[in-house]
Design a protein that fits this description.
The chain is α+β, with helices and mostly antiparallel strands and 443 residues long. The chain has 3 domains: 2-251, PPM-type phosphatase domain (Phosphatase 2c, domain 1, 4-Layer Sandwich), CATH 3.60.40; 301-370, no CATH class; 373-434, Trypsin Inhibitor V, Chain A (2-Layer Sandwich), CATH 3.30.10. The chain has helices at residues 41-59, 66-87, 135-141, 147-152, 189-192, 197-206, 210-223, 267-301, 339-346, 354-370, 383-391; strands at 2-11, 21-26, 29-36, 95-96, 98-104, 107-113, 117-122, 125-128, 172-177, 183-187, 230-239, 250-251, 303-308, 311-316, 325-333, 372-374, 396-402, 412-416, 422-424, 428-434. Strands 2, 3, 4, 5, 6, 9 and 12 form a 7-stranded antiparallel sheet that branches. The chain has a 5-stranded antiparallel sheet with strand order 1-11-10-7-8. It is elongated and about 90 Å long.
């Protein structure tokens, strides 16, 4: 039997105006989610995902085993977020990461989609339990950049998989046999993108209780600049011979969302409300003029990458309401990007500085180059050589035999697509090949 204690903390950070993260502690279920989409759509996505996951698990306790229960709960949340995104233009392209821990007996099931993370701290060592579904993680795996470079890479916010982007999603699920003394950490990239694993391990080693450790982890992220929302959930398992009731479900509400106590109507309370409205209106009027100037300034300093006429394009301005202006359109088609990344680009990536957006553009063009080739000219070659040339580039080959009495057998006389065409890896190239027959006429 285990004595289970947990703690969570979520902070808006030092830069963002909205906290799009959500956290959950509910009995044996713990989770973090990092929403995206802007204009509070990310906040809606993360909150909706955790609400659906919590309800699904509650409704199916004892009916579905732990691993399948986690997978189906996250899939159900994906469907709900996708449906919500399709319901209104203000929610279009919204999505969220999710990383959860569900405890069943002495086993912890970790479900994961996106770049939020789960860690296990055991015996003084910290071990990652999840793999980021992000562009920089893929680059690290391919050996193109190091872990240290990934931490400051301009495309570190580009994720390849999230809830809500598609009707279905592939969920990573791992199981861990719980041992006394285990501490599990769930965190959004607001922490892991700024605080390295060694520092996280130091905090967990020095803090006896989850509440203290959660606070210190968030403080570390804020001390490192806090450019993003940061959220953590810590779950500690200690050996116990007594049954400890699970904690009641506790939903996280960002600071400022509390419902204020109602004032009495009429009298001094009513006059105070009237005065406050007059003051607020006056202040708002003064701020409007300044806000317009600020908006124009930031419009001209903001860039993002999206798609125009099917091509990867750099825009200047704001990515919402189609306010961006084309700064530079490349000749690289978005169809050469991996499907998840293509959808992100078509839905417009997050705003950046010009230098960062230019680097994002270059990175996307490199990714497209890895997934596309130019069709070589194999006309006049023997079919065996032509096929070897094409298959060596990752293209598929289909041959069509034709009769040409004056041309040597096995010669390629037509090809489609034509030489020089840029196509995706795996594209089929059709070759017209002279069939064996009458010998070629000597010239």
């Amino acid at each position: 039997m285990f004595e289970v204690t947990s703690a969570s903390q979520s902070d808006i950070g030092r830069v963002r105006q909205i906290n799009e993260d959500s956290v959950l502690e509910a009995g044996n279920l713990f989770a973090v989610a990092d929403g995206m989409g802007g204009h509070q759509a990310g906040e809606v996505a993360s909150g909706l995902a955790l609400a659906v996951i919590g309800q699904y698990i509650e409704d199916n306790l004892g009916l579905i085993g732990g691993e399948k229960l986690v997978e189906k709960a996250i899939s159900s949340a994906n469907a709900a977020v996708h449906q919500k995104a399709a319901s209104s233009s203000k929610y279009r392209d919204m999505g969220t990461t999710v990383t959860l821990l569900y405890r069943e007996g002495d086993t912890a099931y970790i479900g994961h989609v996106g770049d939020s993370r789960a860690y296990l701290y055991r015996g003084g060592a910290l071990r990652a339990l999840t793999r980021d579904h992000s562009l920089v993680a893929a680059l690290v795996e391919e050996g193109e950049i190091t872990e240290e470079e990934a931490r400051v890479h301009p495309q570190r916010n580009i994720i390849l998989k999230a809830l809500g982007l598609e009707p279905q999603v592939e969920v990573d699920v791992v199981s861990v046999k719980i041992e006394p003394g285990d501490v599990f950490l769930l965190a959004t990239d607001g922490l892991t993108g700024l605080v390295d694993d060694a520092s996280i391990g130091e905090v967990l080693a020095s803090a006896d209780e989850p509440v203290a450790a959660a606070g210190r982890l968030v403080d570390r992220a804020l001390e490192a600049g806090g450019p993003d929302n940061v959220s953590v959930v810590l779950v500690s398992f200690k050996g116990s011979e007594t049954l400890v009731p699970s904690r009641e479900a506790r939903a996280y509400r960002p600071a400022g969302d509390e419902v204020p106590g109602a004032e009495g109507s009429g009298g001094k309370g009513g006059r105070r409300r009237t005065t406050r409205w007059i003051i607020a209106a006056a202040v708002a009027a003064l701020l409007v003029a300044g806000a317009v100037g600020v908006a124009v300034y930031f419009y001209n300093q903001t860039y993002y990458v999206g798609a125009r006429d099917g091509m990867i394009t750099l825009f200047r301005g704001f990515p919402f309401w189609d306010l961006g202006m084309v700064e530079r359109r490349t000749d690289t088609s978005v169809r050469f990007l991996p499907d998840a990344l293509r959808r992100r680009v078509e839905g417009k990536l997050e705003p950046q500085s010009r230098a960062e957006a230019e680097e994002t553009l270059e990175s996307l063009e490199r990714e497209a180059a890895r997934n596309s080739v130019y069709v070589p000219d194999v006309l006049g070659k023997k079919f065996s050589q032509a096929r070897a040339d094409l298959e060596g580039l990752g293209l598929r080959v289909e041959s069509v035999l034709v009769s040409r009495p004056n041309i040597a057998a096995e010669t390629v006389i037509e090809q489609s697509p034509l030489p020089g065409a840029r196509v995706g890896v795996g594209t089929q190239v059709t070759l017209e090949v002279v069939m064996p027959g009458a010998p070629a006429k000597e010239v």
